[in-house]
């Protein structure tokens, strides 16, 4: 759905607002997701995530989503799957050296980020792709990590107080 992917990049600011609202709602339920069991929810969440983000962003289900810092452009659509900025082969017209008809996803990501409130986040290097988590839900992973962080902070606070 290349046309929709381009639309998403052009509307990165509106999608950023939508993302922040839905992420807040979703993560308000983190304890519920973890209570039900991440493993139990993994399959249905991955199916819904793959479908919705697949339509909007051509999501490749890398397992750790960076849309909110890459201008609402899924940089996993780079034919070289480069996670940290464009390779040295971007053409003078901003197109991909592997697929000349396609604008470089990192050029698109940069354009999208310019319209976002947190657009500067694109300057921070991303963690490398982790093949072990491919195909899993990035949404649930964030929830599990949030709960882990909260539990660790509470344990440390308890240790300090005891
Ligand atoms: S960054 Fe990963 S999870 Fe996010 S849309 Fe792209 S492939 Fe999907």
Would you give an account of this structure?
This protein has 162 residues and is an all-alpha fold. The chain has one domain (2-161). It has six helices and no strands. Iron/sulfur cluster (SF4) binds next to α4.
Order of helices and strands: HHHHHH
Number of strands: 0
Which ions and ligands are bound to the chains?
iron/sulfur cluster
Structure annotation, total helices: 6
User: Can you tell me the residue ranges where pLDDT is under 50 for at least 5 consecutive residues?
Assistant: none
Largest sheet: none
Helical/strand content category: mainly alpha
Provide the descriptors you would attach to this structure in a database record.
single chain; 162 residues; mainly alpha; 6 helices; binds iron/sulfur cluster
SSE blueprint:
Layout: H1 2-10, H2 12-28, H3 30-36, H4 38-57, H5 105-114, H6 138-161
Helix pairs in contact: 1-5, 3-6, 4-6
The structure holds iron/sulfur cluster.
Task: Please outline what is shown here.
With 162 residues, the chain is mainly α. The chain has helices at 2-10, 12-28, 30-36, 38-57, 105-114, 138-161. It contains 6 helices and no strands.
